[in-house]
Amino acid sequence: MKNTFILLAFGVALLAFASCKKDSKTAAENITKVVLRLSAPGFEQEFEAKETNGDGIWDSIDEIILPALTGDITCHVHVYDETQSPVVDLTEEIEAESTAHMFTFKVSGADLAVKPNDTDASGKAFNLETLWDAGDVSNGSIQVRLHHDPTDKAALDPGGEVDFDVTFVVKIQ
Amino acid sequence: MLKSKAIWLGFCSLWGIIGLSAQDCHLALRGHVTELDHNEPLAYASVFVKELGKSTVTDENGWFAIPNLCEKTAYTIEVRHIECAHFTQIVQLTENIQMDFHLTHDAILNEVVIKEKALAPPPTQSELVVDRADLESSKGLNFSETLRKIPGVSLLSSGGVVAKPVIQGLHSNRIAIVTDGVTLQSQQWGNDHAPEIDPFAADKITVVKGAAGVRYGVGAMAGAVVLEPAPLRETPGINGWASLGGFSNGWGGVASGSMDWKPRRGNLTFRLQGTAKRSGNLRAPDYWLGNTAAREFNFSAIADWKRERWHHTLSTTQFSQGFSVLRAAHTGSVDDLLLAIQSEMPRNNLDFFTYQLDRPRQQVQHNVLKYKGVYQLNDLWKLSGQYSFQYNQRREYDRGRMNTVAEDKAQVTFQLWSNTLDVSLEHLPIRHWQGGLGVQASQQLNYVSRGGFIPDYLGFGGSLWAMERWRRYPNPWEFEAGARYDYRWNHMTTVGNGNANLDQRLSFGNVSGTMGAIYHITKALTAKLNTGYAWRPPHVNELFARGVHHGAGTYEQGNPNLSAEKAWNTNFSLNLESSFVHGIVSLYHNRVEDFIYLNQPRDSIVITIRGPFPAYFYQQDNAVLQGLDASFTMDLLPKLAAESRFSILRGFRRAQSGVTEGNTHRDWLPLMPANRYQYGLKWTLGKKTTYSRAAAEKKNRAGNAGETFVRLLGSTTLRQTRIPEEGLTKAAPATFTTFSLDAAHTFRFKGLRKTGNPKKDQLLEVGLNIQNLGNTRYREYLDLFRYFVDAPGLNLGLRAKWTLGN
């Protein structure tokens, strides 16, 4: 009788542990690809940054080559999670939550001006779409960041959390 | 107590005069006579050995000792006390034995309970048991806090919530944490991963310092923390305790309870124990530490069955904890990080109180299932088998963009399944040698989600060990020797981690050994010398980590070429136990070949998807850690004792000089504990504090015999000046001093139902514990959040423990 009890208790405990299943490999959202879609009359190109192996470091970042003195080029940012199957396009969701997000662009070296071309739902900066004005022939870089829950959208550094931070090399030819 | 010691030591001297006869009549029976109901010692009880015609009386604390008993000879022991039932017991000794005699009052029932145990030989290594008062007063805080006062032990912490013990400068995978015979298998490699232990389930905590690999396996290269639950009840009935505590810092509360039940019929005993804990944001002297709330729920159950030669134990524990990680420690870029480090006040701090657990946060769960069976082969030999299953799950929730699907998902999940089987054959003294041998087999499976920065792995291990101890009274020498062989095989694979397509098999095998001696210089002074060789294979994270460690806010990269660490650890300690002074001084020298450590080359930054992170790399060098730990307690007046403890450590590595191979120079190791001094006064009311090992153990075990005391303790930690030549990202914190105050008193109430049976009496132990009495602003060198915020300020804790049944 006592042995039966012990065996029973043991069985119950084993059952309790049997509920520990392997988790799906898919955890929280991972931003693994950022695409800058640049378009102007006669100019249509995409430049992308990709992370492929899961170590959290960009594995490939395209070089952005722009024609000099072409006037405004529209830049639309697209954000993807390629760890999911099918691939998840996060851009629409970011747009839907525009007040909680903001893209920033910081140019160094190159003769390039970036101007906002949209606002969030409350009329503040959002920058999913921007206008790029490439000047003279020059080389430099552009740092693109996505902030969420920014503390001050009017500040140079809007604060909050940085979801991605990528620096593209820019060549104006 | 004086008298009991005199008796105990007296018979030792007696042996010296008489010498040893041809027959082995050198054994001693030491006994403690108490009244069963209140566990009160019975003074002046007469103890008579019929066969020898010898008698003695117990001292004022209920102790007696009978020397010169012969091996394997039956003796009839009669214990009489004027207020209690007369009692007779036949004993047959194979070793020096300590027996507890619990006598009942004549009027109630004629019952006697005897608990017998061979006097466990003290280890030849330096060992310290956490004082019961410290154990009780720190319950409700995290587990590592209970060890803080022990010299040679410091804490590696991440703010006030997460802390792990550091023994003589070493931590994590170099320390074994053993709970009720099961070595904790969890994600201990992370500096921000605290041990998953509920201090309320432990009745006794022992810290073994130095190489303990032979006894506890390759994880115990630098020592072990051994936790033991309270012994289960021997007589039918129910007993238990309930404890409530509150803390002002974080407005935390903790409730814990335990219940033991032994039915009238049968040989089974049960225990159920549980703890629930909640606390909000902690507060530094000048501001709230935003996002430092925590929740915990723990549960354990034991079923124990003894019959004839068999003893089975089945137990299960579950530890579940959620805690948030200091918001101010979470920075978005290197610029932010540098600004945060330079700032005196924390940046991005959420300076308000809440119980809310916000991201970043971690959720940890640890389950243990254990079965142990012991079969007593004969008077001398026993065979034990133990199987344990452990499941550890750690989820790390970072602050990141969340879509609706992934809203409550963790960025990283680590899961570890461990199966361990131990079989050992142990014997009581045979020609004065006591020891045993055993085998261990283990299996581990680690599964990491994408972005987890360490690979998945499957591991198998096997071990063989043997250990023997020689002692023969009155010879002042005792010797110990042990050897162990461990083999580990790991298969590491990666899916979606930085080591793309990793598929590697690695194996490591090596021997460990220990040799030790104890010499009883005088009755009060004992010297111990132990030297041991221990090793450990590099952990998977040290070999193959690659990615952002969200919990620590760092980028870590392993080194696949690391070899196993080998340590030669020698320690010498002097123990003084006189009637008014109690002291331990330990000197140690630990020479570690291929010491593995995480190094941050100055200004080393890695650009990740989410911006730049400080980068750390695993590397190895030969290193030496040496130092001195000491602890003294001295009675100044009959009720007033002074205490002092200090720890001094020097840890350095042989660093490469220039580019020429083999040219090395000495460089200090990073993250080595600074020198620390503790000093205090303890005023005891009622019974005087005793310091002998046996008495302390007895007191620790008694559980309900709480003393009334007030203790003021100061602790001064010096600035760490021995830092790596590469420098630190932020200068080592200044010297600081904090004070704490402890007080406790036990009330006794008559049973609720007036049965007249004192067995139904209830005890209420109340305690007050104030940490950082002066609300001092300070930062600790080993606190990983010292870059951002001050340590928590004043914390006033009140606790009450209600013990019922006996």
How is the secondary structure organized here?
The complex is a heterodimer of chains A (173) and B (806).
Chain A: H1 2-18, E1 33-40, E2 43-50, E3 60-61, E4 63-66, E5 71-81, E6 88-89, H2 91-96, E7 101-108, E8 112-116, E9 129-134, E10 138-148, E11 161-172
Chain B: H1 2-18, E1 27-35, E2 46-49, E3 54-57, E4 63-69, E5 74-80, E6 87-92, E7 97-103, E8 112-118, E9 126-129, H2 132-138, E10 153-158, E11 162-167, E12 175-179, E13 182-183, E14 204-209, H3 213-216, E15 223-228, E16 237-247, E17 252-262, E18 268-279, E19 282-283, E20 288-289, E21 294-307, E22 310-324, H4 334-342, E23 361-376, E24 381-397, E25 412-430, E26 433-448, E27 456-471, E28 477-493, E29 503-520, E30 525-536, H5 540-544, E31 546-549, E32 554-557, E33 565-577, E34 581-599, E35 605-608, E36 611-637, E37 640-656, E38 664-668, E39 676-685, H6 693-702, E40 708-717, E41 736-749, E42 762-771, E43 795-804
Parallel strand pairs in B: 1-7, 12-15, 32-36
Antiparallel strand pairs in B: 1-4, 2-3, 2-5, 5-6, 7-8, 9-14, 10-11, 12-13, 14-15, 16-17, 16-43, 17-18, 18-21, 19-20, 21-22, 22-23, 23-24, 24-25, 25-26, 26-27, 27-28, 28-29, 29-30, 30-33, 31-32, 33-34, 34-36, 35-36, 36-37, 37-38, 37-39, 39-40, 40-41, 41-42, 42-43
Structure report:
The complex is a heterodimer of chains A (173) and B (806). With 173 residues, chain A is mainly β. Chain A has helices at residues 2-18, 91-96, and strands at residues 33-40, 43-50, 60-61, 63-66, 71-81, 88-89, 101-108, 112-116, 129-134, 138-148, 161-172. Chain A has a single domain (28-172), classed as Immunoglobulin-like (Sandwich), CATH 2.60.40. Chain B is mostly beta strands and 806 residues long. Chain B has 3 domains: 2-118, Carboxypeptidase-like, regulatory domain (Immunoglobulin-like, Sandwich), CATH 2.60.40; 126-225, TonB-dependent receptor, plug domain (Ferric Hydroxamate Uptake Protein, Chain A, domain 1, Beta Complex), CATH 2.170.130.10; 226-804, TonB-dependent receptor, beta-barrel domain (Maltoporin, Chain A). Chain B has 6 helices and 43 strands. In chain B, strand 16 and strand 17 form a beta hairpin.
